[in-house]
Amino acid sequence: MFSGAHFLVHVAPPEANHAVLHKRKNEVLLLRQHGLAREACKAMGNWTVGATPRTTEANLEKNKLDWTKLELHLQEIGTLHTSIYRVARDLSPALVLTAYWFLKHPGLMFQGPSWWYIPRVSVLEIGMLGAVTLVSRVTTGRSYSSSDELLHREMSSTFMAAFLCALAVYPGLLVKMDSTQALGVDAGFFLATAVLSLIMLAVACFIGWISIDTVIPKREVLIIGSGRGGQAAFAEMVDSPVYNVVGVLDDAFVGTGPMRDRYLGGLDLLDTLLKENPISVVYCSLPVKSMYEPIQQVIAVCEQFGVEVRHSSHLFQTKIARLDRKAGTNDSILRMVREDSTRYAKRIIDVAGAGLLLLLALPVIIAAGIAIKLTSSGPIFFSQDRYGLHRRRFRIFKMRTMVVNAEILQAQLEGQNELGGPVFKIKQDPRITRVGAFLRRTSIDELPQLWNVLMGDMSLVGPRPLAVRDVLKIEDSAQLRRFSVIPGITCIWQMSGRNNTDFASWIRQDLEYIDKWSLLLDLKILIGTVPAVLWGKGAM
Prior knowledge:
- By secondary structure, the chain is an alpha/beta fold.
- It has helices spanning 5-11, 14-33, 37-50, 53-60, 67-77, 83-90, 92-103, 123-140, 150-176, 179-215, 228-237, 257-260, 270-276, 292-305, 342-375, 406-413, 434-442, 449-455, 468-472, 492-495, 503-515, 519-534, and strands at residues 219-224, 243-249, 263-265, 281-284, 308-312, 331-334, 381-387, 393-399, 459-461, 466-467, 488-490.
- β7 and β8 (393-399) form a beta hairpin.
- It is flat.
């Protein structure tokens, strides 16, 4: 995933990084002192996207298995509370009992065609399975306050569930065996259940750690307000392993010293900041009673860009009443896109589909590469910076279909643009090679983007990622809401005529996809794209 801090770390020694960051910070402070707020905003934006002191120092350090940090990781993304882990954890005692039951019938799995035969299960055994499942679910599912440490909580509840399940099983064992034998089986059941649960916990922790360090990108956060709420949000997020505070906005700054280092200016800069930086979360800490209208304006701007808005759940000061919310969450969240378990299903489909398609398309890619190399000079593949989720830049890959200096020649052809709007397209583009024309018409040139899908920068279905040049020419901020979802290889635009539609219709279709998204819609688009590609409908 995109991480601008990597650029500086790889090309310069640590001391050079700090010197550059210190110079940029002084430039921002100097611009603000001279009243050049917008210029300071841009300079700070470049600094934040390129590298912040926190992200640079974090990349200079080697990854260490810090359990305290891991707990914060898991609390933020809820890795230990995913449905798969919960089900597996709650069924651990039942799984151990079932394994013991199969152990008591050693020939069960080796009966030839009748391997599926299951011996008669007594009412007592069914009752024991039901009892341990219920006890485990009740014990591990009870609520905890947000101050509890996550891993300690999970381990203690695991041992408690194993112990209570062992107590529940013991009377049933006494029915079938003497007390000494029953006690031995029960002790083994307790140990096996506890060990199995701890193994599941370790696997969940490992997946969470790997996901944070290699898969899940940090979320760029902009804090609105510098009062008590803003100070609390800043203190919580500034050293968070999953958030990167890009700055603080407030018309009248009253924050702390560390907050002043990231103070950018007044609320009027919000639109510019969202347009020029890959910000995915805006945390609004303004007081509701006295700042209702500014809060509404903040929400309206964020809605235009499709940026998530968060506000403290503690809207009212109470002495007795307590807010009913999930443990660990202190925010009310306004999301502009659908956010539920189906997004994991979409990602699974992306990985499985892209992997299979890339494998099947490999001979075609090799043949196309040979044709490109034989008919024109230059590399086989073409890569370019594109804007992705939350306007983060990533490198997109395609088969090269134009001459090597195509991007330089584009400036001479700007007046011939036929698509309209900021996007540049012409049907008889002189930069396209003979083989390139065929690759574009058949969409073979898009096949390397399956690698972008596997890397998580793109999806099989989603709004097409736009080039940097195109995005910088967009004047209507509302059109930037298309970056609130992961871009894709195909979308409504591709199956409804592609370049035969104008830019306004293209954006309207992208926003329609975002607002109506479902797995069924993705399936319809994938099916509808096939004839559009086969017939070369609207291809340029």
